[in-house]
UniProtKB/TrEMBL annotation:
It comes from Dissostichus eleginoides. The keyword Transferase does not apply. Keywords: ATP-binding, Ligase, Nucleotide-binding, RNA repair. This is RNA ligase 1. Functions as an RNA ligase, in vitro. The ligation reaction entails three nucleotidyl transfer steps. In the first step, the RNA ligase reacts with ATP in the absence of nucleic acid to form a covalent ligase-AMP intermediate and release pyrophosphate. In step 2, the ligase-AMP binds to the nucleic acid and transfers the adenylate to the 5'-PO4 terminus to form an adenylylated intermediate. In step 3, the RNA ligase directs the attack of the 3'-OH on the 5'-phosphoanhydride linkage, resulting in a repaired 3'-5' phosphodiester and release of AMP. Its cofactor is Mg(2+); Mn(2+). GO terms for biological process: response to reactive oxygen species; RNA repair. It is an enzyme of class 6 (ligase). The keyword Ion transport does not apply.
Amino acid sequence: MRSLGSVQHKIPCVFLTEVKEEPSRKRDGQQFQVVATETLNPVALEADIHGAVATEKIDGTCCYVTLYNGRPHLWARLDRKPNKQAEKRFKKHQHQHRSCKGFSWDVEEDFKIVPEAWIPAHRVQHLNGHPVPDEHGHIPGWVPVQKDNKQYCWHGSVLDPEGGAVLVLRPGGDEDEDEDEEELEVTAVPLADLMERTLELIGTNVNGNPYGLGSKKQPLHCLVSHGSFGVRNPPPVDFHQISSWLREGPGGRVEGLVWHCSDGTLIKVHRHHLGLRWPDGGASLGERPVVVRVVGGENTDRKDLFSSFCRLNGQRFSRLQDVLFDS
């Protein structure tokens, strides 16, 4: 499986941004929004953005695979956030200065308690032994997915109950060069093969389900490894050309783009940065054909997602969003 950069922190926008005093298109209740200017971000230029690999930005919730109790394990994203008093002070500073910079945190007192097993993400800076929040006031981190934790039940649904594998959606065609380049594949991948990678959990109950997967009665979720969906013929790194491609391009029905630079730097642009809606019509990922290749665990008495996919092994669907299980 293709492996590019790992998402362990907030990814900078390819363009410099500014704050506008108008309701956010992305976050309900936020009375300002961050929009892109036409100026390329110096961080992107320093990382040689023009020579980077452009990939589709997947709309889900971030996950991570690393060791827990000595074994490969799926972790869910859990940012440590400020408590109500600290958040109030932070928002006041943000409104007055139109910026997050310059705010002073008391890391020991200002942040909510996290589970004991929580770990900070890579690249999080530390001061006096404590992780330091980023410019948005969050400390990115991870918590292990546990079967008995209802908060992460959709993360747990992609795990094989009888083994250390997870359900992964990835580009198909590896076994037959004549297969459709657009075809996707849902398959079981051992967690050991995903060590230190980050992935996106997508599906029925994640972020409003922009890909149209499953239903309330038959929820469907899977993982997508970051960087696994490259963009063919991506637009040049230019404000107007990217905006036009996202509005009208044949591959533009995506949440955004993420560039994987040769030095490991990740750079992104979201439709909201450019004043474009998301989702806007059918997302292209949900409309691509897919084949199911999930073998093992075909226990007809089990009702879990993994067993449901096992019963579909070998079947093809004209669209990912057409995958349905027998009642």
